[in-house]
Design goal:
By secondary structure, this protein is α+β, with helices and mostly antiparallel strands. The protein has two domains: 7-161, 2-Layer Sandwich (Beta-Lactamase); 221-309, no CATH class. The chain is 57% helix and 18% strand. The protein contains six helices and nine strands; from the N terminus they run H-E-E-H-E-E-E-E-E-H-H-H-H-E-E. Strands 4-3-7-6-5 form a five-stranded antiparallel β-sheet. The longest helix has 49 residues, at 7-55. The mean pLDDT is 78.
């Protein structure tokens, strides 16, 4: 039969294992949330940068004048090494400034004044980009200009990792605190069983009185009640055996006294034939007494007690 494990260990495992599974699931969701938060933050910066660039453009003699403000690109600066690219497309599709190979949105019929966020590869780098169209008034006719700004992934990844690490650190502290509190609570709750054990160890071997279940938890009381019932049955069995032994001893005392008297008398007489006759009488009397006692005293035991009948 397999030995039962520690109750405290079983409770801790049954409580901590679901917490660890929940923690693992939470890590997955937290990672997604951190990436979404980082993307949303830098997407706002991309849009703000493109809008700042669009505000500082003008037409002079129907020629696009681009005065790229430093603040527009400084918005995307980060502690993590990153690269920022931009492209300004003048009317007619000519690139007026920036990288002329910076990708435009795919599958989009036209770029509107509303910022359009998308991702694309630029060489061996993955970019997050924004594209918007700005209408610029000129002397003769207005012109439509497209602004594209892109940034590499490094700052987004770094921010997502930082958000995830901060969240997991707090959750780890909570898990550790919960485990310690659980261990302390179990130790204190199971202390009553340890005290009960000490009381039982200090009991004398003849003490078969009932165990008081008042200071143990209600879940343990049925076990104490079962032990008390078993102890009561055992006490009754021992009492029955003691009564049987006492009664048998009493019934054997008188025949033994008679046998001793006969033997003493035979020894005093000294005649060998008389001694032999006396011993024969003792043997016969002993055999008769044994058969008589066996017939008169019926001794029986059951699962709960022993009894005898005279």
């Amino acid at each position: 039969m397999r030995r039962a494990d520690s109750l405290k260990r079983q409770l801790v495992l049954w409580l901590l294992l679901p917490l660890l599974v929940t923690f693992a699931i939470n890590v997955w969701f937290s990672n997604r949330a951190a990436r979404a938060a980082a993307n949303e933050s830098f997407d706002h910066l991309l849009v703000a940068s493109a809008q700042v660039i669009a505000e500082d453009m003008s037409l002079s003699d129907d020629q696009l004048v681009v005065d790229l403000p430093q603040a527009a690109l400084q918005l995307l600066e980060s502690d993590v090494k990153t690269q920022v690219f931009y492209r300004i497309i003048a009317p007619g599709g000519r690139t007026a400034a920036g990288r002329d190979d910076l990708p435009l949105p795919r599958g989009l019929d036209h770029i509107s004044a509303q910022p359009f966020l998308y991702s694309d590869d630029y060489g061996d780098r993955a970019l997050h980009l924004v594209a918007l169209n700005r209408r610029i008034e000129g002397h003769s006719s207005p012109a439509s200009v497209t602004i594209v700004v892109g940034q590499t992934n490094e700052p987004r990844i770094a921010l997502a990792h930082k958000l995830l690490a901060d969240g997991l650190f707090r959750q780890g502290l909570l898990m550790t605190a919960a485990g310690l509190l659980l261990w302390l609570a179990l130790s204190r709750s199971l202390g009553s069983l340890a005290r009960l054990r000490e009381r039982l160890i200090k009991r004398p071997s003849t003490d078969l009185s009932a165990i008081d279940p008042a200071d143990v938890q209600s879940e343990v009381r049925p076990l104490i009640d079962a032990l008390n019932l078993h102890t009561d049955r055992l006490s009754k069995v021992l009492d029955s055996r003691e009564r049987f032994i006492a009664d048998a001893s009493h019934q054997m005392r008188t025949p033994l006294a008679e046998m001793r008297a006969q033997i003493d008398y035979g020894l005093i007489h000294g005649d060998e034939a008389f001694i032999r006759s006396t011993l024969t009488d003792v043997y016969v009397g002993l055999d008769v007494d044994l058969r008589s006692n066996t017939a008169q005293v019926g001794y029986s035991c059951s699962a709960t007690s022993c009894s005898y009948e005279k």
